[in-house]
Structures are given as structure tokens and as C-alpha cells.
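Example record for the data management plan.
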Amino acid sequence: MCAQPPRLKKSPGLARPRPKSDSRWITAGQSAIHGRGVYARELIPDGTRVIEYTGERITKAEAARRETQRLARQRNDGDDSVYIFNLTRRHDLDGRTRRNVARLINHSCAPNCRIEVIRGRVWITARRDIPAGAELTFDYGFAFAEWPLHPCRCGAPRCPGFIVNSAQRWRLRQIPKAARIQRAAAISVGRHPRGALG
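Corresponding structural encoding:
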């Protein structure tokens, strides 16, 4: 019988362990878009269900409470990532768990994946062939009213600079870029300027 190596204590200098994926298609790593991301291990064919987005099924009231907590973390420069999916009129899915590797998939205004909700389960599915090594992305589809809260870093050619549902991006493009930046900066420091910016 071999002796087990000693367990290392967590230390700020040590890298966090990578979450294990139940999907043969992907691996997690540092992202050029934001924080950590998910990458294709091999060519992923169009239409492939890549991974299930898992988490805790919660009520809308609980989702609202957790959103309030998220906004408080955001004000304190903490993790302000949104992991809650809208499932039904009564329930949402909170993916804020280490076991949910799909939570690391970043937003893009030109995504290579889409979301499919099938019988109450959320799947990340390839929208087209995704080459090995490419970062997986999908459209987070945030409401237009929330645009100042969600800056976009995807770098897509038609990216308006903020994460907004694809059907509403035209509205955001109607606001001059300087006004968008000013409005987002004001909201990030807790001031809500009056005006007709949305």
C-alpha cells in the first residue's frame, strides 16, 4: 500500500483546482473574455448537447433575494456573476455551484452555442461546428432595462459594449457610445442619473 501525499492547505498563492466536467467535449481554463471560461477539447459538431447547466431549482422569490445579494457583492467589488436561469413562471435554476462547470461559459454577442430547455433541464448546445481549443459562448439574453449593469467584453464585431438580448441590441445601439459609458459608470458607483437613456 502506498502512502498518500500530504494534503495542501488552501493558500492565496496556490491556484484553485479546476472543476471537473462530466462532458467529454470541454475543459475549463482562463478566458480572454472574462475570468474563467470553457474550451472545446476536440471538434464539437453542430447540434451536439455539450453539457447540462445544473444547479438548485428555486422559486422566483428566492431568485429575487439572491439577485439582491449579487448586487450587494457587485457594489463591494465581489463576484457579481449571474448564474440564475429562468425556467418557468414559478421557478428558476441557480447554477452557483462548483460542480456546475457550465456556469463558466461566457457571453458573446456572436455565440457558438445556444440554450435549450428540455423538460425542465437546461442544455448548452453547439450552434455550429466548434473547433478544438475554441472558447464556448452563448448569448446571456439579459433584458434591455438592465444593460448598464452588464458590460460586455466579448469583442465580437457588432458588440454594443453591454450584454443585452439579441433582439434588443438595436435599441442599445441607438444610444450614443459616450452616453452608454457615462450611464454605466454612474450606475456602478450607485448614482442613477435621470434621463431618457432607458
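Summary line stored alongside the record: Residues 141-198 form one domain.
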